[in-house]
Design goal:
The complex is a heterotrimer.
Chain A: H1 4-40, H2 58-69, H3 74-85, H4 94-97, E1 110-112, E2 117-119, H5 121-131, H6 144-154, H7 169-183, H8 193-199, E3 204-205, E4 208-209, E5 222-224, E6 229-231, H9 233-243, H10 254-266, E7 276-278
Helix pairs in contact in A: 3-6, 7-10
Chain B: H1 2-30, H2 34-47, H3 52-74, H4 82-94, H5 98-120
Helix pairs in contact in B: 2-5, 3-4, 3-5, 4-5
Chain C: H1 2-44, H2 73-76, H3 80-88, H4 110-121
Helix pairs in contact in C: 1-4, 3-4
The chains are: A mainly alpha, B mainly alpha, C mainly alpha.
Chain lengths: ~280, ~130, ~120
């Protein structure tokens, strides 16, 4: 019995070490990730990766810069501002849910301990709407992209800073699930996300250059010429899975939210520059 | 007489040539392939699609495909077109084309099984070698 | 006369052999060319083989560069069956390959895969 306090002390020291060792895994992941891209693109300064494929594709960059002269997402930002300002039926606005808004994109995704899940901005917006007696918006297409465009625009210059809290093992689990998703080969074509955006980033598929995983989340929502409109990150995930001929998952379902958590964490430190414009 | 001989020779030559061709053709046909064998096996059922027995066969093929699809989906291994194939099989069955329904259902079931195996083999995450730690 | 007849006979025989041989070779070549042509089509179109998505191939436009250029294939793959196996399931040789398993996962039917192999091996 005399030994008990000592044993307890030892136990707590051991468990602290265990937690620290475990927590270090995602940091090791990020280091490997960063080193990979540094090795592949030694001439690209880190901050440039926020510009996606245009950090590494000088030809594409020229037309991108021309497009940015008259940004195709501008109207969406304007419409989004109207949405932000317009009162709900109960007289309240988005501001009542998000007092720090509208520049809040850098706070997402984050671990929501209370709900035990990864909270993304689109999900938070809909939870706000529902709490105010409004119908939720669709997660891939439509007016959710207006308000997301406005919030992204107002959040420009903020820095990606996803935290994986150590006081809730479920957060780490969500991160690990997102990571597993990224490296898992899927669909009839047997592609993982990483096959294209880690292993072969910078290579060309037909005449399109594959973007780097690093910096993939900074510019959402994105105006894609292919879509002719602005779309969400989860719409983009859907498209990628579909191209690999895998059945896409539900937008804002657990799989894609965890994926967003992992992928955004990997871009920690990069400046937000949404909404973006892409081919 | 010489002319006759000549003609005969030419004929013989032609026969040799034709024989040569058919040997080549036969060789090509003979090359065994797994899929071809499968198709041949699936065909007898498909050919007599008027039989009510075939309707039942189509129904059970669709049910098998659907349960394989669900199994793949349960571990996130479903492919993009599997469900669409099953829907097409159901439509073909409804239109009375059991042969087509069976063909589509078999294809869907095969996809579902492959998708399941693909996901099952990756239940434990193995980090790829191209990412150096 | 006998001489003449013998000579004629042997000429005819030779002609027949040559003619027969040519006939048989030319039809075989025609069949091969057809397979090559079909294989090329499958390799170049986006929907089917889409080899061009990742490999440079002579005569193909807008080729990607994820995989190695497809050239000197007979030197790289003296055994056509090895090439076929590689296209059928590239993950056997490299678990991390980004190449789809064209045969194993049924991206191409076995007969289409044969045509693609014919074409790729001819490069």
């Amino acid at each position: 019995m005399k030994n008990l306090p000592g044993k307890l002390l030892l136990l707590s020291v051991v468990s602290v070490i265990a937690v620290t060792a475990q927590a270090a895994q995602y940091e090791t992941d990020k280091e490997a990730f960063e080193n990979h891209f540094k090795g592949r693109f030694p001439d690209v300064v880190r901050e440039e990766f926020a510009n996606g494929v245009y950090a590494i594709d000088p030809i594409g960059r020229e037309s991108w810069e021309a497009i940015e002269e008259f940004p195709p997402y501008e109207l969406f930002v304007d419409d989004g501002k109207e949405m932000w300002d317009a009162p709900f039926a109960n007289g309240k606005t988005y501001k009542d849910c998000f007092p720090d808004g509208p520049g809040i994109a850098h706070k997402y995704p984050h671990w929501d301990k209370e709900q035990g899940m990864v909270m993304t901005l689109p999900l938070a917006l809909n939870q706000c709407r529902e709490s105010q007696g409004e119908k939720p918006l669709k997660y891939k297409k439509g007016s959710i992209n207006n308000i997301l465009s406005y919030i992204a625009f107002e959040s420009r210059g903020q820095v990606t800073d996803v935290v994986i809290p150590e006081d809730d093992p479920r957060a780490l689990e969500a991160y690990e699930n997102g990571k597993k998703f990224y490296y898992t080969k899927r669909g009839q074509l047997n592609f993982s996300c990483a096959n294209c955006h880690v292993q072969n980033a910078g290579m060309k598929i037909r005449s399109d250059m594959l973007s780097t995983a690093l910096g993939q989340t900074t510019h959402f929502p994105v105006y894609r010429s292919k879509w002719g409109t602005v779309g969400t990150l989860h719409r983009r995930f859907t498209g990628c899975n579909s191209q690999a001929r895998a059945k896409p998952f539900k937008a804002q379902g657990e799989e894609y939210r965890n994926l967003e958590y992992f992928l955004t964490y990997m871009s920690n430190g990069l400046t937000l520059n949404g909404p973006g414009a892409r081919k | 007489m010489n002319m006759k001989k000549l003609t005969a020779m030419l004929c013989l030559g032609a026969i040799v040539a034709i024989a040569g061709q058919s040997v080549i053709a036969a060789e090509k046909k003979a090359a065994p392939k797994a899929e071809t064998a499968n198709k041949v096996a699936a065909e007898p059922a498909a050919k007599s699609s008027e039989n009510s027995g075939d309707k039942a066969a189509a129904e059970s093929a669709i049910a098998a495909a659907e349960s394989a699809r669900k199994k793949a989906a349960s571990i996130d291994g479903e492919w993009r077109d599997t469900g669409k194939m099953i829907k097409k099989a159901q439509a073909a069955l409804k239109a009375g084309d059991s042969a087509k329904a069976i063909k589509l259902a078999k294809k869907a079931e095969n996809q579902a099984k492959l998708g399941y195996e693909q996901a099952q083999a990756q239940q434990e995450l193995k980090m790829p070698s191209y990412l150096k730690y | 006369m006998i001489n003449m007849s013998t000579r004629l006979t042997s000429i005819a025989a030779a002609a027949a052999i040559v003619l027969g041989g040519t006939l048989s070779i030319s039809t075989a070549v025609a069949a091969d060319e057809k397979a090559l042509e079909e294989g090329k089509k499958l390799a170049f179109t986006r929907k089917d083989g889409n080899c061009l998505a990742c490999h440079v191939i002579e005569g193909g436009e807008a080729a990607g560069n994820i995989g190695p250029p497809l050239m000197m294939m007979k030197i790289r793959y003296p055994d056509k069956a090895v090439l076929r196996a590689q296209i059928w399931d590239a993950s056997v040789r490299n678990a991390d390959t980004a190449m789809p398993l064209f045969g194993k996962y049924g991206v191409l039917s076995e007969s289409d895969l044969d045509k693609v192999v014919e074409f790729i091996h001819s490069l």
